[in-house]
Amino acid sequence: MIPILKIEKVCKRFGGIVVADAIDLEIHAGEILGLIGPNGAGKSSLFNLISGIYPIDSGEITLMGQSLHGLSMVKRAQSGISRTWQHMRLFPSMTVLNNLVVASRYYEAENLRALFFQSGKVKSLQAEKENDAMEILVRMGLASLSNSPIADLTFGQQKLIGLARALMNDGPCLLLDEPMAGVEGQSYETIKDIVRQEANRGRAICVVEHNISFVKDLCNSAVFMFNGKLLERGSVDDLLASKTLEALYFGGQKTIPVS
Ligand SMILES: Nc1ncnc2c1ncn2[C@@H]1O[C@H](COP(=O)(O)OP(=O)(O)OP(=O)(O)O)[C@@H](O)[C@H]1O
Ligand SMILES: [Mg+2]
């Protein structure tokens, strides 16, 4: 079975900092892969390389067998790479509903030509997007907040909206950067349920998370990243039993232990 996302020998450095050191990774349909590692390991950078924020120095990234080489961030999103951001990038004065609508995979209202010459079509597509957005908000138990400005929401609710925005892109690959940071209570359970549902729908999901019990609960397998390298991979339990991970992640050791 061809993987949804395939990363081959991907390298990236910023001056002296190597954020991706010959990364090889595959994520398959229905899989929830955990990506764990200490602060500065390169986890968010890897998401930025996949989603086209930064160009890679070398290597290859393919989505369902198609190279993403040279594709902009927008084209990659339209190809089906959807993501959340570690530091939520919401529009605070816009309503919840509009924050979702502008995150859809194809947002026709950005096309000035269509706005001028096909305004009726744009309006009906806009109504469709609003319906899609409402469906997602209902799934998340947030429908009553659809007309509230983001600035009025709690932090946990804003995290849910970050995920809801990612779901407006129904593509096959979903990248979640610390979806649980600062989240507790009901929002925690909701995020867990939604991520599971999306995997059951056949999406390939990669989750960066420091909340290890969340990773344990949710992920089929995980990889451990340190200084731009993927050092270990396996079941979450195997990784948690690893001495290397213990030293570098929980022990705060700065260099890879010699075995
Ligand atoms: N655009 C950039 N220019 C220069 N250095 C960068 C850039 N982006 C990231 N870095 C550096 O790359 C390293 C990896 O950063 P990254 O944000 O990917 O880490 P992370 O694993 O996501 O950490 P955290 O768990 O704290 O979110 C850090 O040293 C960071 O300062
Ligand atoms: Mg990060």
Question: Could you describe the 3D structure shown?
Answer:
Helix 6 runs parallel beside helix 7 (185-200). It is built from 10 helices and 10 strands. It starts with a strand and ends in a 9-residue tail after the last helix. Helices cover 37% and strands 23% of the residues. With 259 residues, it is of the alpha/beta class. The mean pLDDT is 91. It has helices spanning 43-50, 73-79, 96-101, 112-117, 119-139, 155-167, 185-200, 212-218, 236-240, 243-250, and strands spanning 5-14, 17-27, 32-36, 58-63, 66-67, 81-83, 173-177, 204-208, 221-226, 229-234. Strands 6-7-8-3-9-10 form a 6-stranded mixed sheet, sandwiched between helices. It has one domain (5-250): P-loop containing nucleotide triphosphate hydrolases (Rossmann fold). The structure holds adenosine-5'-triphosphate and magnesium ion. Adenosine-5'-triphosphate (ATP) binds at residues 14, 17, 19, 37, 39-45, 86.
Number of domains: 1
Shape: globular
User: How many whole angstroms does the radius of gyration measure?
Assistant: 19 Å
The top-level CATH class is: Alpha Beta
**What structural class is derived from the secondary structure elements?**
alpha/beta
What small molecules does this complex bind? adenosine-5'-triphosphate, magnesium ion
Order of helices and strands: EEEHEEHEHHHHEHEHEEHH
CATH homology-level superfamily: P-loop containing nucleotide triphosphate hydrolases
Portion of residues within helices: 25-40%
* Measured distance between first and last alpha carbons: 35 Å
For the residues shown, what is the average pLDDT?
Answer: 91
Major sheet summary line: 6 strands, mixed
Counting DSSP H or I runs of 4 or more residues, the number of helices is 10
Output the CATH topology. Rossmann fold
CATH architecture: 3-Layer(aba) Sandwich
Q: Per DSSP, what share of the residues sits in E-state strands of 2 or more residues? A: 15-25%
